[in-house]
Each structure stands twice: as structure tokens, then as C-alpha cells.
Amino acid sequence: MALPAIRVMMPFFVGFSFRDMVEKYRSSLTGAAAVSVAAILWGLDGIVLTPRLYNLNIGYVVFMLHLIPFGIMNLFMFREYRQLKRFSAGDGILFSLVALTGGVVGTMAIVKALFLVNFQNLTIIVLLQKLQPVFAISLSALLLKEAIGKRFLMWSALAILAGYFLTFGWRLPDFSTGSKTFIAALFSLLAAASFGSSTVLSKKILMKFDFRTATFFRYGITALIMLLYVLGAGKTGQVAMTTPMNWIVFLIIAFTTGSGAIFLYYFGLTRLKAIVASICELFFPLSAILFDYIFNGTMLSAIQWISAAVMIVAIFNLNRTTN
């Protein structure tokens, strides 16, 4: 007697499952597109936008890169200030450390690296920054007591080795030529370590606060720290030295590769599995190589192409070890 009823209801359940599957697919597709676009925007930033601010003081540049997006956020995220009531002393320290590592030190280091190479070897500097997972996972093992496996050691060693050949090719580092590539590479690695540290510290913050709150206060605290730097170092005169083109670049970064890309990235992460997101993030190094060729006419040598490919594969597998 129950069979006719089951037959009548079967199309409904089948239809429901199909619609549910389609919606899930659309959500994943939207998430993948968001993360991919964010990664491409970061490639555009490192190769095309930030290097165009080379005429300005590095600390002032980092200050403006955080102040302008934070000012924009205040227009539609001012309610985030209510979260201050939830802040404990420990939360304040964590947010400050994230601002110091990911905002102040990390951004200043990568901007310094990009300025040093004077539009030469920009791809190398941007790709070296992608060694961030090596530092993030290592710090997680130290601070969060997360286990490190043989896979991590293998892939991280391969990524670092590839990073060396990407920077120097078959040659040994020559410190007598006055080349700034080696120093820029060190700053890029410092940026990777700083951003990796920020990622680990952010994990603790995101256990209590959502990504909007984390982003809002990270930009706000970083802007405050850099304001103190600008005032203390006597760099307020940089405002008068900022050209109309500099202001245009600042605004483009604020709406696209800055806070815009971060929100796109987190929007996508909420709709994707971590492993899929790590694949979409590969658009960052790939777009950096493409943009450097289109805008600066820079081509990697054969050994650098191979090294870049090996490093990307190694970094992808590093991400897989944590997902």
C-alpha cells in the first residue's frame, strides 16, 4: 500500500536533490571565480600598481595603502566598532600582532623589495612572496603545536630550492656587482615570513571574530601604527610630493587589489573547499608572470621558468598538507 505513495513522492525528492546540487555547484563556481579574481588582482598589484609609487617614502606608501581602504570601510562597516566591547586584553594583543606582521612589516618589506628592483625582476620578487606557506606551517608547529609531516619537509625544501634557482639561475650570488636583486629577494622572504605569521595569528582571531571584523581592525590598527611612524619620522611632507598619478594608483589599489581583493577572497573561501581555493590562488603567480611580460617586457629564462613551475607545484602541495 505504501509503494504508490513512494512513487508519487519520488520525483519531488529527485527534483529537490537536483536543484540542491545545482545551487551548490553555482555557489562553488561563484566562490572559485571570486578567489581567482582576487589572486589576479594581487598579481596586478605587485607588478603594475605598487611599483608606480616608487617616488614616495615606503612608510608613507604603506600608511596610505591602509588609511584609504580603512576610510572607505568606515562608510559601510562603522558598526564594527561595536565589536570593541567584546575585545579582551588578549584580543587586543592578537589584533596588534596581526597588524604588525601582516600590515606593517610584511607590507613594508614587499614594497621595499618591489622598489629596489626598479621594474626589473618583479616576477621573481612576487613569486618568492608565495613561499609564505613554508613560514606559516612552521610557525603553526611552534605556536599552535601542529604536527609537521615528512610531506611538508619535502615540499618546503623543494620550494626553497626552486626559489633559489628562480632568483639566481645557475649562477652563485655575486655580491660584488652591486645588484639589488639579492637584497630585494631577502625583503621578499621577510614579507613571506611576516604574512605567514599573520596567517597563523589570524587563525586565533577568526575563532572568535568573523573575517569582516578581522579585516576592519587589521587595516585600522595598521593605519594607526603607520600614522605614528609618518609623524615620528617627519614624513608628513610626502603628502605634498604625492602626484595626481600617485593618488590615482592609491585609489585603484584601495578599491581593487587592497580591501576589494581581500573581501573577494574571503567571500570565495566561504563557498569553497580549501583545496579548490588553493588551486584558484595559482592565478596569482601566473598573472604576475603575464603582467610582467605585458607591461614591462620581462621574460624569465628557461631555468627560471622551470624553477617557477616547480615552486608553484611545491607550494600547491604545501597547501594540500594543511587541508
Describe this structure in words.
By secondary structure, the chain is an all-alpha fold. It has one domain (44-321). It is 78% helix and 0% strand. The chain has helices spanning 2-49, 58-76, 89-116, 122-129, 132-143, 150-168, 181-205, 211-232, 238-241, 244-269, 274-280, 283-296, 302-321. α1 (2-49) runs antiparallel to α10 (244-269), α2 crosses α3 and α3 crosses α8.
The number of helical elements comes to: 13
Q: What is the succession of H and E elements?
A: HHHHHHHHHHHHH
Strand composition percent: under 5%
- Would you tell me the overall average pLDDT? 81
Q: How many domains in all?
A: 1
Low-confidence stretches: 1-14
Given the helix and strand composition, which structural class is it? mainly alpha
Annotate the secondary structure layout.
Layout: H1 2-49, H2 58-76, H3 89-116, H4 122-129, H5 132-143, H6 150-168, H7 181-205, H8 211-232, H9 238-241, H10 244-269, H11 274-280, H12 283-296, H13 302-321
Helix pairs in contact: 1-10, 1-12, 2-3, 2-8, 2-10, 3-7, 3-8, 4-7, 4-12, 5-7, 6-13
